[in-house]
Specification:
Blueprint (H helix, E strand, L loop, with lengths): L1 H34 L2 E2 L4 E2 L3 E3 L5 E3 L4 E2 L3 E3 L5 E3 L4 E2 L6
Length: 91
């Protein structure tokens, strides 16, 4: 009986984690927008992303950045309008 309850508890905790993980990364991604050097209209971050120095990043209009993308900048990075950056890409 104890093993059965443990299995149920693990499933519940895992499902809650997966549900809230998406929300947490959505909040992190949206917070990047306020810290960017420039952020155009209709910029979408899809899931977990990492930007090392958001103040050096300029993003134009209609840009989509895919899940698990990383932008590591030692200097200014410019992403032009109507650009799609796929998942797992590192710049």
């Amino acid at each position: 009986m104890l093993n059965f309850l443990k299995k149920i508890a693990v499933k519940v905790v895992l499902s809650l984690y997966l549900k809230f993980e998406k929300s947490i990364w959505r909040i992190v991604a949206e917070s990047y927008k306020t810290r960017l050097g420039k952020c155009g209209k209709n910029v979408k971050f899809n899931g977990k992303i990492f930007i090392s120095r958001p103040e050096l990043l300029e993003i134009e209009d209609n840009v989509h950045i895919g899940h698990n993308a990383s932008i590591l900048s030692g200097g200014k990075v410019y992403i032009g309008a109507n650009t799609h950056i796929g998942p797992n890409l590192v710049i």
